[in-house]
Design a protein that fits this description.
Blueprint (H helix, E strand, L loop, with lengths): L3 E3 H7 L4 H13 L9 H11 L5 H12 L6 H20 L8 E5 L7 E4 L2 E4 L4 E5 L5 E8 L8 H18 L11 E5 L4 E4 L5 H17 L3
Parallel strand pairs: 1-4, 6-7
Antiparallel strand pairs: 2-5, 3-4, 5-6, 7-8
Helix pairs in contact: 1-6, 3-4, 3-5, 4-5
Length: 220
């Protein structure tokens, strides 16, 4: 099987202990590299709202609907209830998300969702793409972190932001400079918002080394 990992998980991997790194590789192999998202309903609703497809009232109604969802399938009920709570968290932090002079588009409307680094396919799908209001060229993106089990660490978020920046430069801008302040990694449970570092050269070397390690261990 091809070595695969998501950008969020790679960011975690790069800041993890040796023991945790082995565990991450084992888990992503079992999940096929790109695991099913447990917050799909929250992600879709929030992206619909921020891209202007639904109103704030509709977003609130979606949160209530999901929080009150009942099913004989415990997994289905728990994931939908969690998505409802995640939307509620987002509503609390919404005013902290400031994006100036940009058009906001759903990431699912764009074809390229991954980047290859040192033999590893890295899933780098933005939740939302940010386009210049003047030229409609890609200038940044937004990616959410929804997990309630572990807060997003600053170093991990900045690695993820660096990966997303490289993804946009390689796949959408022909190497043109992306605005680091418009690469936003949002930890939804805590409300923390991280931007891409101004300088990414050192982090890119760490990312390449980490992917080399994942590739070498993938079949072990």
């Amino acid at each position: 099987m091809e070595a695969k990992i998501t950008a969020n998980k790679l960011g975690e991997y790069l800041t993890a202990s040796a023991r945790r790194r082995r565990s991450i590789i084992k888990t992503i192999q079992e999940e096929g590299g790109f695991p099913a998202m447990h917050y799909t309903d929250a992600r879709n609703a929030i992206c619909d709202y921020l891209s202007g497809n639904i109103s704030s009232q509709q977003l609130l109604e979606k949160s209530i609907e999901l929080k009150n969802y009942v099913s004989d399938n415990n997994f289905s009920q728990s994931t939908k209830n969690a998505s409802g709570a995640a939307i509620e968290d987002f509503i609390e932090l919404e005013d902290e998300i400031v994006v100036k002079n940009c058009l906001i588009r759903k990431g699912s409307d764009f074809q390229e969702n991954s980047i290859e680094i040192s033999g590893v396919k890295v899933g780098a799908k933005p939740d939302l793409m940010l386009l210049s209001a003047d030229t409609e060229e890609v200038v940044g993106c937004i990616k959410f972190h929804f997990s309630q089990s572990a807060s997003l660490e600053k170093d991990s978020a900045e690695y993820t932001a660096t990966i997303m920046k490289k993804h946009l430069e390689d796949n959408y801008t022909g190497g043109n400079k992306i605005d680091p302040k418009k690469i936003l990694i949002i930890d939804n449970p805590t409300g923390e918002i991280y931007e891409a570092p101004k300088s990414t050269k050192s982090r890119l070397k760490d990312i390449e080394a980490g992917c080399e390690e994942i590739f070498a261990r993938w079949e072990i």
